[in-house]
Write a structure and sequence with these properties.
180 residues, mainly alpha, Rna Polymerase Sigma Factor, Chain: A, 9 helices, 77% helix, 0% strand, elongated
């Protein structure tokens, strides 16, 4: 498999740009899909956010300064796109006086792509009760098994703040599930 450094190098040559970008998409599409899906929950919304993520990557990859790893940079873009999408969705909901958390939970239960059992559904419902930052931190740590150092780089925050957010998220989920 081609390395991230090779992808960046090859992308900067206009003759290889489209082919190289296709390699990048194939390399990271599935991981990014599931990361975004844990944030926005809906399959179609996830596809939209994923597409927006790759559009931003395409527009900015040539000027990528490699101050972080390529995947970290793309993951940060995907996270920001997902959070921006949710904020826009929340603004539209406010005008219709619907609660976004309730709508996301309803969508999750009705989603034909969700193949979890009752316990997984209950966990997802618990995660939805978390504030946005705690939800993202919990998903990255619990599901993606990401190290605090990587999370700190992606979310532009300290490891200590992330550890505290994760701890608070765990306690809230335990209370929701009645396991504390």
């Amino acid at each position: 498999m081609i390395t991230d450094g090779e992808i960046i190098q090859r992308f900067r040559n206009p003759e290889n740009r489209e082919e190289t970008f296709g390699i990048l998409v194939r390399k990271y599409q599935e991981r990014l899909y599931w990361h975004i899906r844990k944030i926005v929950l809906d399959h179609e919304d996830t596809d939209d956010v994923l597409q927006n993520t790759f559009v931003k990557v395409w527009k900015n990859l040539e000027s990528f300064r490699q101050e972080s790893g390529l995947f970290t940079w793309i993951y940060r873009i995907a996270t920001n796109e997902a959070l921006t999408f949710l904020k826009q969705k929340q603004r539209r909901r406010i005008h219709r006086s619907e609660d976004l958390t309730e709508q996301l939970a309803d969508n999750l239960e009705a989603d034909v792509y969700f193949n979890g059992d009752e316990i997984q559904l209950k966990l997802q419902q618990a995660i939805l009760t978390l504030p946005e930052k705690q939800r993202v931190v919990f998903n990255m740590r619990y599901f993606d098994e990401m190290k605090y150092e990587e999370m700190a780089e992606i979310l532009s925050t300290s490891k200590g703040a992330l550890k505290a957010s994760y701890h608070h998220a765990m306690k809230k989920i335990e209370r929701f599930l009645g396991t504390d």
